[in-house]
TrEMBL record:
The keyword Phosphoprotein does not apply. It comes from Lithocarpus litseifolius. Residues 630-655, 670-696 are annotated as: Disordered. Its main location: cytoplasm. Residues 670-680 have a biased composition (Low complexity). This is Calponin-homology (CH) domain-containing protein. The keyword Repeat applies. Keywords: Actin-binding, Cytoplasm, Cytoskeleton, Repeat. Gene3D superfamilies: Calponin-like domain (1.10.418.10), EF-hand (1.10.238.10). Residues 122-239, 267-370, 392-498, 516-624 form the Calponin-homology (CH) domain. InterPro entries: Actinin_actin-bd_CS, CH_dom, CH_dom_sf, EF-hand-dom_pair, Fimbrin/Plastin. One of its GO terms (molecular function) is actin filament binding. GO terms for biological process: actin filament bundle assembly; actin filament network formation. It comes from the Eukaryota.
Length: 696
């Protein structure tokens, strides 16, 4: 079995932003300075950071010092290791902003939010305020505060209690948050505000937002640039929601054959939008290729051509005849308004090439007039290419989970984006540090097919080392996009990660190796928790059909935090409608508590045992981090194992060894119902949706 020395920090989010390799490197740099000087100050950081590979080509030492001075008034002040890590993240965000964006990542979703001071883009702020005023004007709670004045700080003040952001998420992806879980009193206490912001951040991740270096306190304080960054992502997710084959199968008209359809499936939504725009521009006789929503649209010509071909009844040659870009931009916006496109940007925003606002403008044109034909033959082909409901839900869950891990690559479609093996290697490095041999890995773009196979072979090899059940599976199965295999592998990876988190939390004490956490331990913990709270519900297994009414999970949530469930809004769960109400409420309450979960209400109603296990384990993980957790909550044979980590030492030279983190896991769903096995069973193709056998 593998073992490694782990560097632990007390903030789980901060821990999640680094691999163990990165943590150990940074820890050694920190300890080295501390050993020499007796302490580490902010003034020591520039000379440390400038030598790091991530920054050496991006910044000079004086530039790093200037960036740090924006956040720290006293450069002679002592800094602990966690603050050292946060300073590193802030500098990393500056490096990301300074460097050209990766063409493989989704530009706005990977936008980093930091605590460093940033100037506010007033045009974007005005646009987002107009959007909020329009879409939330009739909201029963918010309407008394609307419309907001974009020239004031009213937006930031209103966002401080968390209600606005939660409501905005529901506008972007309806039904994400059960509004019964939002605290909407006129005056909220600090606890209630924190709950709203926790619910907001966990729900934002669950719709695909990438939130880096932002916490509930940042939202409570109404930090303008952090709020605008989050609001921008939420609004764009709403505006780009239809730019996929599932929602708009007519998009298949943009491609010629099945290979191109596969490529279309893997494109991020803004790339699909560009493809759509260029499709119409080519038909209109526009000779240039639009590659971005900034410099390529500043003169307004592309917009004039686009609107002329999409809505000739509202357009004309005048916009093309004028030589003044500002005048042309004004005509373009006037034409767009005739299509009911809300005027969220000004002629100045077009001329100056504001990328966010121009993207939003094109997305609005697409929503109101996409100009695509209904070709029955092509539509049928597009529908064949989309997944069934269960596969689609699982793909969504794993995609959101991967994107929440903070890896470098943003995943738009699991089945397409992981076929070169690189994303899976990034995930494995995150959840099982030092398991990946990067010298044997090829980074995208990968032109040679055998390099993709090599990456995927290493993925399979590591999976087997982690005791995943991969019978007759080879890397080429992943390269070929075997969906059943991919889902089964990702399920085992997600389950391994959660069990490892629980094991670390329960077993790491004074270097002592603890007992593995099993499905049965999680089941027993949940039943014991509910029983000790004086409730009568119990679950026989993670496939117990009685779980579909949601009562057990509401009682479990109430048991770990009595005040979090409002029982007056809970139904008996006897009808399908009542079950859905309870399931939606469970997910929002769990997120409000602090659980980062990605399942949908249907997973609870249908008792999807995989997602039920992850939900229970997530609640257990949150509960065990609370100081009041009782030792008897674990099985009797584990009574000598403490419930949580002692406070992690982050500024000393010594590190406590973390033995046996790479667990010997049983990846057998039958373990949900029976005593766990010590070894992973063989996985066979026909008997279980979670098991897969590769080709011989």
């Amino acid at each position: 079995m593998s073992s490694f020395v782990g560097v632990l920090v007390s903030d789980p989010w901060l821990q999640s932003q680094f691999t163990q390799v990165e943590l150990r490197t940074l820890k050694s740099k920190y300890v080295s300075v501390r050993t020499q000087s007796g302490r580490v100050t902010v003034g020591d950081l520039p000379s440390i950071f400038v030598k790091l590979k991530a920054f050496t080509e991006m910044f000079k030492e004086d530039e790093i010092k200037a960036i740090l001075e924006e956040s720290y008034k006293d450069m002679d002040g002592e800094i602990d290791f966690e603050s050292f890590l946060r300073a590193h993240i802030n500098l990393q965000s500056r490096a990301t902003a300074k460097s050209p964006g990766s063409k493989n990542s989704s530009s706005f979703l990977k936008a980093t939010t930091t605590t460093v001071h940033h100037s506010i883009n007033e045009s974007e702020k005005a646009s987002y305020v107009a959007h909020i005023n329009s879409y939330l004007a009739e909201d029963p709670f918010l309407k008394k505060y609307l419309p907001l004045d974009p020239s004031t700080n009213a937006l930031f003040d209103l966002a401080k209690d968390g209600v606005l952001l939660c409501k905005l998420i529901n506008v972007a992806v309806p039904g994400t948050i059960d509004e019964r879980a939002i605290n909407t009193k006129k005056i909220l206490n600090p606890w209630e505000r924190n709950e709203n912001h926790t619910l907001c951040l966990n729900s934002a991740k669950a719709i695909g937002c990438t939130v880096v270096n932002i916490g509930t306190q940042d939202l409570v304080e109404g930090r303008p640039h952090l709020l605008l960054g989050l609001i921008s992502q939420i609004i764009k997710i709403q505006l780009l929601a239809d730019l996929n084959l599932k929602k708009t199968p007519q998009l298949v008209e943009l491609v010629d054959d099945s290979k191109d359809v596969e490529e279309l499936l893997g494109l991020p939504p803004e790339k699909v939008l560009l493809k759509w725009m260029n499709f119409h521009l080519k038909k209109a006789g526009y000779e240039k290729q639009v590659t971005n929503f900034s410099s390529d649209v500043k003169d307004g010509e592309a917009y004039a051509f686009l609107l002329n071909t999409l809505a000739p009844e509202h357009s004309g040659p005048a916009a093309l005849d004028t030589k003044d870009p500002a005048e042309r931009a004004n005509m373009v916006l006037a034409h767009a308004e005739k299509l009911d496109c809300k005027r969220y940007l000004t002629p100045k925003d077009i001329v100056e090439g504001s990328p966010n606002l121009n993207l939003a403008f094109v997305a609005q044109i697409f929503q109101h007039r996409n100009g695509l034909t209904v070709d029955t033959k092509k539509m049928s082909f597009a529908e064949m290419m989309t997944d069934d409901a269960q596969t689609s839900r699982e793909e969504r869950c794993f995609r959101l989970w991967i994107n929440s891990l903070g890896i470098a690559t943003y995943v738009n479609n699991v089945f397409e984006d992981i076929r070169n093996g690189w994303v899976l290697l990034e995930v494995l490095d995150k959840v099982s540090p030092e398991s990946v041999n990067w010298k044997q890995a090829s980074k995208p773009p990968i032109k040679m097919p055998f390099r993709k196979v090599e990456n995927c072979n290493q993925v399979v090899k590591i999976g087997k080392q982690l005791n995943f059940s991969l019978v007759n599976v080879a890397g080429n199965d992943i390269v070929q996009g075997n969906k059943k295999l991919i889902l089964a592998f990702l399920w085992q990876l997600m389950r391994f990660t959660m069990l490892q988190l629980l094991k670390n939390l329960r077993s790491h004490s004074q270097g002592k190796k603890g007992k593995e956490i099993t499905d049965t331990d999680i089941l027993n913990w949940a039943n014991n928790k509910v029983k000790k709270a004086g409730r009568t519900s119990q679950m026989e297994s993670f496939r117990d059909k009685n779980l579909s009414n949601g009562i057990f999970f509401l009682e479990l949530l109430s048991a770990v935090e009595p005040r979090v469930v409002n029982w007056s809004v809970v139904t008996k769960g006897e009808t399908e409608e009542d079950k859905k109400l309870n399931a939606t409420y469970i997910i929002s309450v769990a997120r409000k508590l602090g659980c980062s979960i990605f399942l949908l209400p249907e997973e609870i109603i249908e008792v999807n045992q995989k997602m039920i296990l992850i939900l229970t384990a997530s609640i257990m993980y949150w509960s065990l981090q609370q100081p009041a957790e009782e030792s008897e909550s674990c099985p009797a044979e584990d009574s000598n194992i403490p419930d949580a980590y002692p406070a992690a030492s982050v500024d000393g030279e010594s590190e406590t060894p973390l033995d046996g983190v790479v667990c010997n896991l049983a990846i057998n769903d039958a373990a949900s119902d029976t005593a766990p096995s010590d070894t992973a069973p063989e996985v066979e193709n026909e008997e279980s949706p979670d098991k897969v056998e590769g080709k011989d």
